[in-house]
Design a protein that fits this description.
The complex is a heterodimer of chains A (572) and B (366). By secondary structure, chain A is mainly alpha-helical. Chain A has two domains: 250 residues, Orthogonal Bundle (MetI-like fold), CATH 1.10.3720.10; 224 residues, MetI-like (MetI-like fold). In chain B, a hairpin with a 2-residue loop joins strand 1 and strand 2. The longest helix of chain B has 18 residues. Chain B is α+β, with helices and mostly antiparallel strands and 366 residues long. Chain B folds into two domains: 228 residues, 3-Layer(aba) Sandwich (Rossmann fold), CATH 3.40.50; 119 residues, OB fold (Dihydrolipoamide Acetyltransferase, E2P), CATH 2.40.50.140. In chain B, the strands form four sheets. Chain B has a six-stranded mixed β-sheet, sandwiched between helices. The chains are: A mainly alpha (572), B alpha+beta (366). Chains A and B meet through helix 1, helix 2, helix 21 and helix 22 of A and strand 6, helix 3 and helix 4 of B. Bound molecules: adenosine-5'-diphosphate and magnesium ion (MG). The site of magnesium ion has 4 residues of chain B, from helix 1.
Chain lengths: 572, 366
């Protein structure tokens, strides 16, 4: 039986030495890490550097130090936009955070029914371009709004519309952070407090709120940053009310004043960078808070509390779903609000927009390419960074670059791309306005979240797989193909869907980068709205939303398949 | 430090190995020879550098300085894939998405062998580790002990010259662990593959190894057979770490005699210190003679029996010399002796320390 086992000759390790002139496995790994780092430098670091250096130059390219910043600070209209942006973003944050907190509390700490429906409803805005919420509000409360009387004479077009639309749009982002924070806190504290007969009010103020405070801070920064850097909503609903994001657009696209655009970009960078560091700190504290033996909290039924939270959540969910439903409905209406008969006429985009449906197919191409190329780059990059032992400094550098986009709003990255890929000295400027630049910009824009998702799933694999594979004389790429990637398939799918959905809906970065034949669906919304074709704008927004939701549904189905059939090994 | 005088060149040789983590010295100048076909255990408390040494030998975490020879070939700077070893980790690191057969055959596929030959080899290996019919299962469907054996089969698949095991049994419960000890030992002797196993469990090392390498704080304290390590620990650390050992403060009174309090003891070996020097006298609890102590026996004294605790096959007692001047001395008394002699708490008995069971260590304490 085992005779063969003992007779099997040991393979000479010298066999490997005969491959002396071939390049070694370690060198391949090094080259791959270097390639990933080089790509990240090209798509992240250099555009940012272009932005920073542009802000220190005059229009004709001379170095002028901080002159542009001085000019900025002494131009009253620009400073007014800054003030506008700050208070609008501040107010939107102040409105969104408490609502999202109670909603998250209801999802994590109550026994109210239909939780998954409420979660889905709250996440709806993620699947639509930000400006779709603004279009819906215009249908409801605008000059021809159905519920215009609710405005009591005030104008929607301005801060009120911006704040309302931004609140809807940023709600899911706050909610995701807060549900995580609340589900992390330790159930044992609650149970101990219950046992001591602590009142519910005291428990809330002494345990729940402090436990979630890092989540609250983090969510507040994220919402503030999203709002202050969003371009679509103020463009559609802002009227004469100027904010930083629209200023940046006007300076760069309208007046071709690149240096001033760069200054606005840097001003926009500040809250995002602050948010980035606060978030890092918060995450460290949050995990420290959660000891290894912490147990998740199992809420006990409490009719009164559950009923109240259910009512609240239902109202919020209804407001969100109704808004987007109105946008979809409006897109089928012949002449809002005077003739509510239904029609597909608004979907004949060629009537109002030269590119017609072309924008949509461009968006699909962008989203598909971003999903495929972005996911490949992100996952392979994360694998090399996490699992290859040598080249520590290079790996650290690549990781740093991968984390940077988190701190860079899309609008700012878009500006950087304009300055870098449009520069006359740059041989890569042939790509300006092409799908190539749109794809790499979108990959860069959403790199960090995808990178963290990939790292998280890679970290769950046994750290010794690489060692085992090497001891069996099989290269790391064999391991990657046969073991790592298949095990991480669900995370890879998550990343691809994330990339796809965001590529479909993004406006802020690509608005600076599209060319005549690469206009995207989301950008044509802006243009159709500008041309007064609100219904067609809403129609395009609805098409995007339907596509994104469709992909998400497909994702859920595919994940079920992957877990069920293809990954039989996951079953015990 | 040589494992034993051998005529053959050692299969594995490590010279002057050093490894730092930042400012922390994990390995200090390690020299080691492992003869071909032997089963060697690296034994030491957690954090002493066993895994670091094993991983340096494998090339997984290269050393800062020093030379490693495997089968006479200098592999100090070779990547792991160029070193001819198989390895089993504490976690087993089985590929969860591959069947047991695919796991075991993972290292065989690239050798341009016909598929049937690979299948046969995998079946042989599974039979070898006693799991002949489990090839189509996934690792998640196996028990811990079965997973361990699959990991072993996978490590042996390419017939490596060197088998490295990092705490391969410590994730298992006590019963399975003891059964697998014996199985692994038998398998190793059958294949005669040079094996290094890392463990912090002295019992495991004593039961399985041909040679034990006792490590502490990044240095090798002693290399020897289990018997040598147990009977003649080279340092107080080894004495304390392997088995139970009582240490008594003593003063040298002659070339082969020491004094503990007011009691004089004869020792079999040279005290190795000048008269008057403070030393530590060490002995194992089971070496204390409690039965049939002749009136003129060497190192005989009267002691009061206290702190009896029943430990199954024997009782641990704490003996306090009637003459005083010594800390209580742990002594193991077999259940038979307990019954035959009717030993009871508080009783005063004559006991003796056989001179050859006593070890004298320089008092290195500050
Ligand atoms: N990658 C590392 N970085 C820093 N310190 C390490 C690293 N690996 C091991 N050490 C330290 O080196 C010492 C020896 O570790 P190790 O060889 O794993 O010990 P053990 O004998 O338990 O296997 C420990 O103090 C450990 O903390
Ligand atoms: Mg260890």
């Amino acid at each position: 039986m085992s005779g063969a086992v003992e007779a099997m000759p040991a393979v000479s390790p010298r066999a490997a030495a005969t491959r002396r002139f071939a390049i070694s496995e370690t060198q391949v790994a090094g080259l791959m890490i270097a390639a990933v780092a080089a790509v990240l430098v090209l798509i992240i670091a250099l555009p940012l550097w272009a932005l920073l250096s542009k802000s220190l130059q005059s229009v004709d390219g001379r170095f002028v130090g901080l002159q542009n910043f001085v000019t900025y600070a002494s131009t009253p209209t620009l400073m007014a936009s800054l003030v506008n942006s700050v208070w609008v973003a501040g107010l939107a944050t102040a409105i969104v955070i408490p609502i999202a907190f109670v909603y998250a509390y209801a999802l994590t700490r109550s026994r109210m029914p239909l939780k998954s429906v409420f979660t889905a409803a709250a996440l709806l805005p993620i699947f639509a371009p930000s400006l779709l919420s603004a279009l819906a509000l215009i249908y409801l409360f605008g000059n021809q709004g159905m519920l215009r009387s609710w405005m009591m004479g005030a104008s929607l077009y301005g801060p009120i519309g911006i704040i309302a639309a931004e609140a809807l749009y940023s709600f899911p982002h706050a909610l995701l952070i807060l549900t995580t924070a609340l589900s992390l806190s330790d159930g044992r504290l609650r149970e101990a407090a219950d046992a001591m007969g602590t009142t519910r009010r005291r428990i809330f103020w002494t345990i729940t709120l402090p436990g979630a405070r890092y989540g609250l801070v983090s969510a507040a920064f994220v919402v503030f940053t999203l709002v202050i850097t969003d371009f679509g909503i103020p463009k559609v609903i802002g009227g004469q009310f100027d904010v930083l994001a629209t200023d940046a657009y006007r300076q760069v696209v309208g007046q071709q004043n690149f240096p001033m655009g760069a200054v606005v970009g840097i001003v926009l960078l500040l809250p995002a960078v602050a948010a980035f560091f606060v978030d890092r700190r918060a995450q460290k504290r949050q995990t420290a808070l959660l000891s290894a033996r912490a147990v998740p909290y199992e809420p006990k039924p409490d009719r009164q509390r559950d009923a109240a939270l259910f009512l609240f959540s239902a109202l919020v969910a209804l407001a969100i779903v109704a808004t987007y439903a109105v946008a979809a409905w409006g897109s089928f209406v012949r002449y809002w609000p005077y003739n509510l008969s239904l029609t597909f006429a608004n979907y004949d985009f060629a009537e109002v927009e030269p590119t017609g449906w072309g924008g949509y197919s461009n968006s699909l191409k962008l989203a598909g390419l971003t999903a495929v190329l972005g996911t490949t780059l992100v996952f392979v990059g994360a694998y090399l960074i996490e699992k290859i032992k040598p080249y520590r400094a290079l790996r650290g550098f690549a990781h740093f670059l991968a984390m940077l986009p988190m701190a860079v709003p899309g609008l700012v990255l878009g500006l950087g791309y304009v300055f870098f890929f449009n520069a006359s000295w740059n041989p890569l400027n042939v790509f300006y306005g092409t799908l190539t630049v749109l794809v790499i910009n979108t990959v860069a824009h959403y790199y960090t979240v995808a990178h963290i998702t990939a790292l998280t799933s890679l970290k769950q694999l046994d750290h010794e797989f690489e060692a085992v594979s090497a001891s069996l004389k099989r290269p790391f790429w064999t391991l990657f193909g046969r073991v790592t990637a298949p095990i991480c398939a669900p995370a890879i799918l998550d990343i691809a869907v994330y990339m796809f959905v965001n590529a479909m809906t993004t406006v802020s970065a690509v608005i600076f980068l599209y060319g005549a034949d690469t206009k995207l669906a989301s950008i044509s919304i802006v243009h159709m709205d500008e041309a007064g074709a609100v219904a067609s704008a809403a129609a395009m927004g609805t098409v995007i939303m339907a596509t994104a939701i469709g992909v998400k549904v497909l994702h859920v189905a595919l994940t079920a398949l992957v877990f069920g059939r293809l990954q039989r090994w996951r079953r015990r | 430090m040589t494992a034993s005088p051998t005529i053959d060149p050692p299969f594995l040789e490590v010279r002057g190995l050093k490894k730092n983590f930042g400012g922390f010295v994990a390995l200090k100048d390690i020299d080691l020879k492992v003869p071909r076909g032997k089963f060697v255990c690296f034994l030491g408390p957690s954090g002493c550098g066993k895994t670091t040494l094993l991983r340096a030998i494998a090339g997984l975490d290269p050393q800062d300085e020093g030379t490693i020879l495997i089968g006479g070939r200098d592999v100090s700077h070779a990547p792991p894939s160029d070193r001819d070893f198989g390895i089993v980790f504490q976690s087993y690191a089985l590929f969860p998405n591959l069947t047991v057969a695919k796991n075991v055959g993972y290292g065989l596929v690239n050798r341009a062998r016909p598929r049937r030959e690979i299948e046969e080899r995998v079946n042989d290996l599974l039979a070898l580790v006693g799991l002949p019919d489990q090839g189509s299962k996934f690792p998640g469907q196996l028990s811990g002990g079965q997973q361990q054996r699959i990991a072993l089969a996978r490590a042996l698949a390419t017939s490596p010259g060197l088998l490295l095991l990092d705490e391969p049994l410590s994730a298992l419960d006590a019963k399975v662990r003891i059964r697998l000890r014996a199985e692994m030992r038998t398998l190793q002797q059958r294949l005669r593959v040079t094996t290094i196993m890392v463990t912090h469990d002295q019992e495991e090392a004593l039961a399985m190894a041909d040679r034990i390498v006792v490590m502490n704080h990044g240095v090798i304290e002693q290399v020897g057979t289990p018997e040598e390590i147990y009977r003649r620990p080279a340092t107080p650390f080894v004495a304390d770490f392997v088995g139970h050992m009582t240490f008594l403060d003593a003063v040298v009174t002659g070339p082969r005699s020491v004094k503990v309090g007011s009691l004089d003891f004869v020792v079999a070996e040279d005290a190795g210190a000048p008269v008057g020097a403070a030393v530590r006298l060490a002995l194992r609890p089971e070496a204390v003679q409690t039965r049939g102590v002749a009136p003129d026996a060497l190192n005989r004294f009267e002691a009061k029996v206290g702190g009896l605790s029943f430990l199954g096959a024997f009782c641990r007692a704490h003996l306090t010399p009637v003459a005083g001047g010594s800390a209580p001395i742990a002594a193991d008394i077999s259940a038979n002796a307990m019954r035959d002699l009717g030993i009871s708490e508080g009783e005063v008995r004559a006991v003796a320390f056989p001179p050859e069971a006593l070890r004298v260590f320089a008092d290195a304490r500050p």
